[in-house]
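SAMPLE LOG
Freezer: B-3
Tube label: C17
Construct: single chain, 367 aa
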Amino acid sequence: MKTPTTNPSQPVSAATRYQAFDLLATLVAVVHLDGFVLFANAALEDALGISRRTIEGSQLPDCFTEPQILRTALDGAGSNEFAALRYDAWLRRANPEPFPVHVVVAQTDVPGEVIVELLPLEQQAKQGREERLIDQAQANKELIRNLAHEIKNPLTPIQLSAERLEMKLASKLQPTEQAMLTKSVKTIVDQVDAMKRLVNDFRDYARLPTAELKPLDLNALVGDVMQLYADDATLPVRVELDAAAPPIRGDAQQLRQVMHNLLQNAQDAQEGQPAGHPVQITLKTEYSTSARRVRLIVRDNGAGFPDHILKRAFEPYVTTKAKGTGLGLAVVKKIADEHGARIDISNRVADGVVQGAQVSLSFAVVA
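STRUCTURE (predicted):
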């Protein structure tokens, strides 16, 4: 099939006719039988990581690892061999690696135009996992509240009893025995305090309040949060703000917590890195004019996530930290859901080597 050097006619009219596809979460492109993209919706733009202007007018088959399959499908659509064709493929994108999609090629009412719908297979699996997590979280909430209450009740009496015992016995013991008693009581008190903090973490997760969404300047909020880290030499953060980002609807207090949690995770990800490893943490905002969404992104150059953890990163109690509770990202996910934000987590890979991790939240802008 000979590829034309210019775009097919009437791309503007196609963009106008298919504008409603921007309302869909599904990835959709309208293409000419020669493979040129006449229209790409906002979801496809986000998935490919390149602008709609770049996509439209380009060859859609070139976005796949095996472009000839789509070219053959377009030839079949042009000769009316089928009304709709389905197959699985791998879609290329700017970053990170290609991902699997289910492709649906269907004829339209306009001669020479074909709709190509792409259903991300990993997204379907992720949606199923998230639905199960929601059900699990609801079932666990009451359990967490009850456990926190039952565990916390005896902790204070234990602490007070140990302190009173030390006061009563200290004067009757030899200096070496007093030192041993003091050390033992301190151990008890320290461990009780640690248990109290742990119980409070679980309780706070279960009691996270409903977000109060108001128009919010995300860039300004990032600036406020970074003021708190201005003197922290252990957490060097590069801030990149998109000046064009309009206000979103958000809860300032909860989004501060999101940033604190993600920056803490980015810092923890540096543990175990070789001496002299330069810490690179980025906190940035990006605005997509076509999708009308603002993304909040935190990147690091740490060790990344093991595959078995990455698949379950937003589940409560899942962690790579020896002393972690696994609630940091679970809280971030819960807050994202409250805001109706899309959330994504991935390892940053270059030449087959993990170069760190990235977490992003995508918020709708104020209408």
